[in-house]
Each structure stands twice: as C-alpha cells, then as structure tokens.
Automatic annotation (TrEMBL):
Protein name: SEC14-like protein 1
GO biological process, one term: negative regulation of RIG-I signaling pathway
Gene Ontology MF annotations: RIG-I binding
GOLD domain segment(s): 558-713
TM regions (residue ranges): none
Domain CRAL-TRIO: 356-532
Low complexity bias (residue ranges): 737-754
A Pfam short name: CRAL_TRIO_N
Lineage, highest ranks first: Eukaryota, Metazoa, Chordata, Craniata, Vertebrata
Residue spans of biased composition, Polar residues class: 232-259
InterPro entries assigned to the protein according to its UniProt record, in alphabetical order: CRAL-TRIO_dom, CRAL-TRIO_dom_sf, CRAL/TRIO_N_dom, CRAL/TRIO_N_dom_sf, GOLD_dom, GOLD_dom_sf, PRELI/MSF1_dom, SEC14/CRAL-TRIO_domain
Any one annotated GO CC term: cytosol
Domain PRELI/MSF1 residue range list: 3-175
Region described as Disordered: 232-264, 734-754
Length: 754
C-alpha cells in the first residue's frame, strides 16, 4: 500500500534569498542530519542572466536500520537523486528527489517547495509532500515501511530547525541581507550556461511550471503573528490562470471553512488545533483535501435562500481522525456516515430551528456552567433529580434526542469561543453528572432505551468531544446502570470517566483538581449559583398517549425535506412528476447512501399505473433515519420508445456520492425519475480512492441500495442561473450541502455531467 505525506505550510520570517543562502549550507553534507553522509553534484545549468539555476545531486545516506537487514539487502548506504530548480525571478525553489537504491523494490518520491510569502515579501513559505511504495523487500516489507515512516517523520520535524540553525549562523557572521536578483540589461534570457560535472548529466527542463502562490493572511499584531500567520481557512480562492488571490475580511479568520485551494499553515495548526505529529498533520491535510476535491462544483446557489456550500471545520475533521487513531480510511468512513446523517436531519440548523418545549425547560436538569480549569466548557447534569420516565412519557424519545443534539451543537460552538478566549486549542468539554437521588425508578426500561439511543447517536456523530466526565455521589444502584450503558460507550471515552462515591469528590483528587473553587455549584457545597433546573416529577397531566408520541416522532422526521427510498435488484424506485406547462424546470438533489445506482429520467404522455410497493421492503427501524420505501410506476408491458422515452442519459452514481441536477422540460406530461440497482465494478487498488470511487472499499455485497432524495419543480421564469453555462453537480459528500425548505443546491443543465 502506498503511504503518502503532505505537510502544512511552514513559514520562515526571513526573506527568500536569505533562506536560500541558509539552504545551500546543508551541502555537501550536514552535521545536523547524522544519516546524511555526503552529496555530489552531477550536473548544473544556469541561464546567462542568472534567473534560473538548476542542480542535480546524488545524496548518500546511512539509513538507521538493523545490521541484519542491511546484510540481507547487501548495501551499507542508500542513494537518492535530487533535482533542484531555483527561479530567482519568481523567488521559488522546487526540489524533486527519488531513491536510486532498490528502485525496483521500493519507490520513494518527494517534492519540496520554497517560495516568497504571497502577502509579506520578507517571509518565506515551505511545503513538502512525499510517497512511499514498497513493492517487495525480502519479506520485510512491513518492517521497512514502519522504519521508513518513523525516520521520515523524524527528519521532517528537524527540517525547520536545520534551516533556522544556518540562519542563525549567517546572523552571527554578520549576514542579514542577501540582495534580490535583478535582470541584466545585456544578458540574453534564452542563453544557457552548462557546467558539466559528470559525463552524462541528467538535467531538468528549464521551463518548469511554477506553483501559484497561495494567499496567506498576515497578522498585524507583532506579538501574535503565530495566530494569524498564513491561516489557510479564510476561504482563500486562487485563480488557476491569473494566480490572483482573494482574501476574506479579518473578522472571518476564525472561520475554518475552506476552498479547494486553501492550505493549512503550521502555526495555525498549533494555535487552533493543537500539537500534532508530522504524520497526524499529513492525515488532516489529506482528508481535508479529499473533502475539498469531492465538492468541486458545489459552490453555486440557484436561489437566494440556498446557503453557500461549506466543508466541515478543521476541528470537526480532526475529531474523527482522533477517534480512529488517525487511520484515514476508518476516519473517512465514519465521517461520511455522520455527514449524511447531519444533512438528512438538518442538524446544521438545529440551534436556529429547535425550540425546547416548556417541559424540558422546567424539568430537564442539565445546563452549561462556566468552564473547567483547562478552559473547557462545563456541562452539568443532575441526573439523580431528573424524572426520566416523566420526560419520556411527556415528550417522547425523539424530542429528548433532539434536545441532546442541540446541547452537543452548543458545546461545539462554546469550544470555538473558548479557543479564542484562552488562546489555545479547546476541542472538547467537561461533563459533571450528579447522581444524588438516583434510584430504581431511573432504571425504567423505556427510559434506559431512550438513553441508549442517545448514547449511540452521540458516539457516532460527536466523537472526541467529551474531554472528561465527572460522576459524583454515585449510589449503590449505579453499578446496575453502568452495566447497562457501558457496552455502548467507546473504550477511549470510558477512559475519561472519573467516578466518586458519596462525598469523595470533596477530598484529594476530587472536584477541586478539575474545577476552580469559584465556579463549584452551590448544590455541591460551592458558592456559585447554578442555573440548572432542580427538576422534580413531571405532572402526569402532561403525559402523552402512545399514539400521540408516535405521531409526534413522525412529524419530527417529516421536518426534513428529503425522502428515503430502497432500491433492490430488479425493483427500482420511481417517482412521477406531472408537468402542465412546458419549459418548467425539474430539479433534483439525491444522496446514494448505500450501494450503487443508475439514475434515469423518462417522459410519458400516459399517466403511469397506481404506485405499488415492493413486498420485499419492510419499514426501516433505524433511530437516525426515517423509513425507506420502494415504489414502481412503469408498467412492465410498456415499451421504451413507444409508451415512454428517455430524456436524460443514464448516470451511474456510486455509494457516498451526491447528485444535484435539473432538466428543462420540452413537453407537458408525466416525467418519471428512476433509481435502478447497479452492480459496482471492481476498482484499481490505490492509496487514496478517486472521488468517483469514494467509499468503494467500504461497500459490502448486497442486493439493496438506499437513496435519499429531494425534488422540486420551478417555473422557467423563476429559475435562477444560465441554462447553458451551469452544469449538474456530482460530488462524493453531498452530506455537506445545505438543504432548505424552498430549494436545493441543484445546478441547471439539460445534460447531467460529472
């Protein structure tokens, strides 16, 4: 399997020319890199005006490997070829290197780039990427891979230190300025001077493309330049042809939504996301880039009510990576599932749309209360005082679930605020649970069922948000409750639990170790008034009947504008839309949640038969999605081309993808949207799947597919956007596009295109 690495942007606060002077001091050898034994120049060329200088080197490395492995391999040293192109006019240095030793068994390829800071010409940016592909190595493939990744991560960490060492050395020698290159008046730019050092030098092409600079905001505060230095997430958008950059206003520097050309800065990562190892940084950047690539073409909105597309914030992506120990494939899988869930249930709008029923305001004994000693938001839950049975009987499970989701969404918002206030990354919160009053009535089975549902949803969609859980005054009945719920809690989360019986929380190692004395609630012996409701029994007059609760749960689900459907082998799902006026616009937005489907659009002058549901389909019982259905409209006796016709080319859609499109109708009649089962073809083995192959590795053999869709018919006079210039958007994470009650994110075209 190919291992890849992508660095963030690292910034040197010295001019490009001075950094280049320091860089050259690394050769022919560097005492700061013990394994870098020597290097020799194989070939060198320079334009007569001196604007472009190219050097090819052969580097000799003494790799730190077990002596036995070296003997088996039959080598003492490893050789690499390095090709450098210094463009003094553009102020860039491009470095490309690959291994010569064992090149038929191991392929190592590295690209590095130094460039002048796009907004501060006296600073220099550095970025690198690399790949490692071990095809075979005498049966030690796994060992060599681990050893190589470990040594490479170590060398990355020391890279900036080495340049800074030579910069300090230059300063000690009194060299603080290196003049910039200026064109010579009498030099011909087409002339090239070749300095052969060996008989057959292999030289780079002179005209090598230069990567356009990425706009990186510069902090105006000299004491806080690490905070705003090169913050990539200010929605910087580069133009591929003009290399112009447009920056967001300064007050948006905290917004970590990005565009495909955004890049992360190392100082930004440290300031807002925490200390990450080089390989962890690489995982974040690569997953982030994959999300950006998946959403190209989804930034256009067709109506004023359609919000612009946004990818998840960096903190959110990082939480899923941490939850899976930075395993890219596993993190991408759970992130995909969570984002689908967020879109279907419109969780992104929960804080704006959800209003807690008065019963919750009066009897739900939980609320936010200041912060702990580490700056984490503190949530207090007086579970022992809560009438769980009464709340479930009065509200139903779905209302409780939505309330808990709103608490988690508020927690994410508070983490962002505290990150700004305390000047350090805060990505999780502390929860204090007071169990005084907990007894057997809390073990009421429907209440436990509701609790387990909530735990399951929160665990799946809010990983690594709980920093610490303090359980106080645990009674004797607590072990029974813990036995019921602990299997549903992730092992890493369970390690964050601290349980105190009786008044143990008042002693050494207790509450004062985690919460300042000034904010300890009054009901725990502190002096701070806590606004968390005291709870009590919910009056039975507020109880709802089972039928009322069931209808309430259904109405909650129908708030989403999306519908779910199941697609089986031999049983497509079909939807009919009757068009009265020609030149109307049919728009659609659908996600392929499971399996692969083929999407068709047909037209018929005849009304299709009465919808019939496939008998194979039962009701979906998931706690997070409404029931799916399967409806077939096209009569089997109908003949394509006679009774109905195809008006759009078939579009194959793979699991995890989203499709937004539209069709301008030419005739009145009945238009049938069809989702048909499609067998997934085998895909080539690659390290990072193409966007078209997203989630292919996760797909299991099944004869059932599932889609989530929304359609709308718009009059041509109301349709916003050019009918000829806009294309249908087809991406791998539709979960992120925002749904509204009036329009979707579809883009207009009479032909669907990828």
């Amino acid at each position: 399997m190919v291992q890849k690495y992508q660095s963030p942007i690292r910034v040197y606060k010295q001019p490009f020319e001075l950094v280049m002077e320091a860089y050259e001091r690394r050769f022919p050898t560097c005492h700061l890199i013990p394994m870098f034994v020597d290097s020799e120049v194989l070939g060198e060329t320079e334009r007569e005006d001196g604007s472009i200088h190219q050097v090819q080197r052969r580097c000799k490395l003494d790799v730190d490997a077990p002596r036995l492995l070296k003997r088996i391999a039959g080598v003492d040293y490893v050789y690499f070829s390095q090709e450098n192109t210094l463009n003094k006019r553009e102020r860039t240095l491009h470095i490309e290197s690959h291994n010569e030793t064992f090149s038929n068994r191991v392929i190592i390829h590295e690209l590095c780039s130094y460039s002048a800071h796009p907004e501060n010409e006296d600073w220099t940016c550095f970025e690198q990427s690399a790949s490692l592909d071990i095809k075979s190595f005498f049966g030690f493939e796994s060992t060599v891979e681990k050893m190589a990744m470990k040594q490479y991560a170590s060398s990355i960490k020391k890279g900036k230190e080495i340049i800074e060492f030579y910069l300090n050395q230059l300063e000690e020698e009194g060299i603080s300025h290196v003049p910039r290159w200026t064109p010579s008046l009498d030099a011909s730019s087409s002339s090239v001077t070749t300095k052969p050092v060996c008989a057959t030098p292999k030289l780079l092409q002179l005209e090598q493309p230069v990567t356009p600079a990425v706009s990186i905001p510069v902090s105006t505060d000299a004491n806080d330049h690490e905070i705003a230095n090169a913050i990539n997430n200010d929605a910087t958008q580069s133009d591929a042809t003009s290399n112009d950059a447009t920056n967001q206003p300064d007050d948006q520097t905290e917004n970590q939504t990005g565009t495909p050309d955004d890049k992360l800065d190392a100082d930004y990562i440290k300031r807002y996301l925490g200390d990450l190892t080089p390989l962890q940084e690489s995982c974040l950047i690569r997953l982030r880039q994959w999300l950006q690539e998946s959403h190209k073409g989804k930034t256009l909105t067709l109506t004023p009510s359609s919000p612009p597309f946004q990818i998840p914030k960096d903190e959110h992506i990082l939480r899923f990576l941490r939850a899976r120990d930075f395993n890219m494939e596993k993190a991408r899988e759970i992130l995909c599932q969570s984002l689908t869930w967020r879109k279907q249930n419109q969780v992104d709008y929960l804080l704006e749309t959800w209003t807690s029923p008065q019963v919750l305001n009066d009897y739900y004994t939980g609320g936010w209360h200041h912060h702990d000693k580490e700056g984490r938001p503190l949530y207090i839950l007086r579970l022992g005082q809560m009438d769980t049975k009464g709340l479930v009987r009065a509200l139903g499970e779905e209302s409780l679930l939505r309330h808990v989701l709103s608490i988690n969404e508020e927690g994410l918002r508070r983490c962002e605020e505290n990150t700004k206030v305390f000047g350090r990354p805060i990505s999780c919160w502390t929860c204090l649970v007071d169990l005084e009053g907990l007894n057997m009535r809390h073990l009421w089975r429907p209440g436990i069922k509701a609790l387990l549902r909530i735990i399951e949803v929160v665990e799946a969609n809010y990983p690594e948000t709980l920093g610490r859980l303090l359980i106080l005054r645990a009674p004797r009945v607590f072990p029974v409750l813990w036995t019921l719920v602990s299997p549903f809690i992730d092992e890493n989360t369970r390690k964050k639990f601290l349980i105190y019986a009786g008044n143990d929380y008042q002693g050494p190692g207790g509450l004062l170790d985690y919460i300042d004395k000034e904010v300890i609630p009054d009901f725990l012996g502190g002096e701070c008034m806590c606004e968390v409701p005291e709870g009590g029994l919910v009056p039975k007059s507020l109880y709802r009947t089972a039928e009322e609760l069931e209808n309430e749960d259904i109405s909650l689900w129908t708030e989403t504008i999306y519908q779910s459907a199941s697609v089986f082998k031999g049983a497509p799902h079909e939807l009919v839309i009757e068009i009265i006026d020609a030149s109307s616009v049919i728009t659609w937005d659908f996600d392929v949640c499971k399996g692969d489907v083929v999407f068709h659009l047909y037209h018929s002058k005849r009304a299709p038969q009465t919808p019939r549901k496939d008998p194979l389909v039962g009701q979906h019982s998931s706690i997070t999605t409404p029931g799916g259905n399967n409806v077939q409209l096209i009569d089997k006796s109908w003949t394509l081309g006679l009774d109905y016709s195809m008006v759009e080319s078939p579009l194959t859609c793979k699991e995890g993808e989203s499709v937004q499109g539209s069709h301008v109708t030419r005739w009145p009649g009945f238009y049938i949207l069809q989702w048909k089962f499609h067998t997934m073809p085998g895909s080539a083995s690659t390290n990072l799947p193409r966007v078209d192959d997203v989630l292919a590795s996760l797909q299991v053999s099944s004869h059932k597919c599932k889609v989530m869709y929304y359609t709308e018919v718009i009059g041509s006079e109301d349709f916003r956007g050019s009918m000829t210039s806009l294309e249908s958007s087809h991406s791998g994470f539709s979960q992120l596009s925002h749904a509204t009650s009036t329009s979707n994110h579809s883009q207009s075209s009479s032909m669907i295109s990828r």
